[in-house]
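We were asked to recover a plausible sequence for a given structure. The inputs and outputs are reproduced exactly as logged, with field labels preserved.

PROBLEM: sequence recovery
POSITIONS: 78
GIVEN STRUCTURE:
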């Protein structure tokens, strides 16, 4: 059970880090400007941390679900 809690905490931290990197960092500023010019949806998405975090969490959950299957007996006892 502690392993599952650990993975959830890591997923939350990873989601927050991806969101901060994509929405606020200077490194991705040229990418944000380019994507913002392509679509009003992308402009809103890349300027709203709450909006972007939903999509980032979907990415993190899918990657973590692929790398760490929850049906493994080491994570959740079935």
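RECOVERED SEQUENCE:
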């Amino acid at each position: 059970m502690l392993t599952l809690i650990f993975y959830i905490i890591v997923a939350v931290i990873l989601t927050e880090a991806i969101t901060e990197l994509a929405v606020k960092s200077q490194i991705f500023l040229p990418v944000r400007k380019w994507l913002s010019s392509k679509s009003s949806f992308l402009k809103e998405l890349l300027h709203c941390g709450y909006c972007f975090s939903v999509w980032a969490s979907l990415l993190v959950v899918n990657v973590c679900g692929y790398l760490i299957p929850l049906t493994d007996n080491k994570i959740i006892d079935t």
